[in-house]
Amino acid sequence: MLVGGSPTVTARDPNIEADVRAIVSQIVDCLADGAPKPEPPVGAPPPVDATKIPNSGITTIAIGGDHGGFALKEKLAFRLREQGFSVEDCGTNSTEAVDYPDIAAAVAERVASQASQVGIIIDGAGIGSSMAANKIRGVRAALCYDVSTARNAREHNHANVLTLGAGLVGDSLAWQITQEFLATPYGEGRHARRVAKIDDLEKSSVEGS
User: Fold this and answer.
1) Which CATH architecture has domain 60-198?
2) Global pTM value
3) Pick from 88, 90, 138, 172: most CB atoms within 10 A?
4) Percentage of residues in the chain having pLDDT higher than 70
5) Would residue 156 show up in a list of annotated catalytic residues for this protein?
């Protein structure tokens, strides 16, 4: 500004400077939130979710995966142990080809015998493991592909085994599904009558064989 033909120097207002810095910081944060996140290195565990899985009474888990589910099985087991769960690894222990019914049976039998409260089985698509596990009396295995199906499987169907398809869900989604499955309690109520009918079908099939 010129006053009487001479420039004048205006003193800086520290309050205005602080406000400007705060606005700039907010803009930078917003831009950072919208920027693409770097991919985790191959073989890294799923992203850490700082939120502890709510306690639904589950403390013991049997987990297993065939060669197609081995990598994801290792990552989920790592995260579950981090969360404080007691995890029994039923194999496999490498990417060498194995038969998924053997792994599914190992996990399902631990659940049926109550050695573990719930089980998680992973193969390429999750379908075969679900079929195999459901041949074990007392097991209600559910193939889940998103958070909603995981919640429904537990709340409505009292599922005690979760199956996942490593070729169909990524690490992050698999972890979200697992969290939801473990955090959701059985709804009982009207669902109890329907689950009892599933159990009756199983009993009648075994007795009639």
Assistant:
1) 3-Layer(aba) Sandwich (3.40)
2) 0.75
3) 90
4) 75
5) yes
